């Protein structure tokens, strides 16, 4: 499973890259706004750092403006993946982007039927939002499992990008379900290598090392 970092924070992206756990980046208007920096400056910095796919989201709701923005975003570089909402106009834009060779990430997916039609529209990635479904007492991970099964049934090329992953178990369950990608903030990436028994074992080794004679 590939790891994308869900962030527009340059320091966080650099840290994920240094850990070898950044195969790409996903952003959205909220994440860019948190930086307090101009959009172009943020994106230029990210694209200069990251070799893998970088998802940049349109802010329009109508098809013509979505396509105008999609083409403008794609002009930033070949690694740009245009994020489109899972709406009727978003699917129209997805189909046009597919025809024009523009990679897409269809986002805000909350049902298997939405994922099915996104794949038929030619989406490069589909982003089921696990944590947001959990928030309303629904099993978000079952959605990932259902989408993976549907895509395997029909050999769709659309990759399942498990999003809104909020803790290590979300990441592990996504991997077990067969998601192609998991996107998460740096805080979740850092939790993946933390374990109390690792800390206890390391401290024991260090304490014992102090007892070894120096000569």
List strands and helices in order, with pairings.
Layout: E1 2-6, H1 10-18, E2 24-26, H2 29-35, H3 39-49, E3 54-57, H4 63-74, E4 80-85, H5 88-100, E5 104-109, H6 112-120, E6 125-128, H7 130-135, H8 140-154, E7 159-162, H9 168-177, E8 181-184, H10 186-191, H11 196-210
Parallel strand pairs: 1-2, 1-8, 2-3, 3-4, 4-5, 5-6, 6-7, 7-8
Helix pairs in contact: 4-5, 6-8, 8-9
Overview features:
alpha/beta; TIM Barrel; 11 helices
**Overall morphology:** globular
Total individual domains:
1
What oligomeric arrangement do these chains adopt? single chain
CATH superfamily: Aldolase class I
What's the Cα radius of gyration?
20 Å
Helix content: 40-55%
Number of helices: 11
Q: Termini separation (Å)?
A: 48 Å
Major sheet strand order: 1-2-3-4-5-6-7-8
Mind telling me which CATH architecture this is?
A: Alpha-Beta Barrel
Q: Which structural class matches the secondary elements?
A: alpha/beta
Order of helices and strands: EHEHHEHEHEHEHHEHEHH
User: What's the CATH topology label?
Assistant: TIM Barrel
Quick one: how many beta strands?
A: 8
Strand residue percentage: 15-25%
CATH class: Alpha Beta
- Main sheet properties: 8 strands, parallel, barrel
Can you tell me the residue ranges where pLDDT is under 50 for at least 5 consecutive residues?
none
> Can you give the mean pLDDT?
97
How is this structure best described in words?
With 215 residues, this protein is of the alpha/beta class. The protein has one domain: Aldolase class I (TIM Barrel). It contains eleven helices and eight strands. α6 runs parallel beside α8.
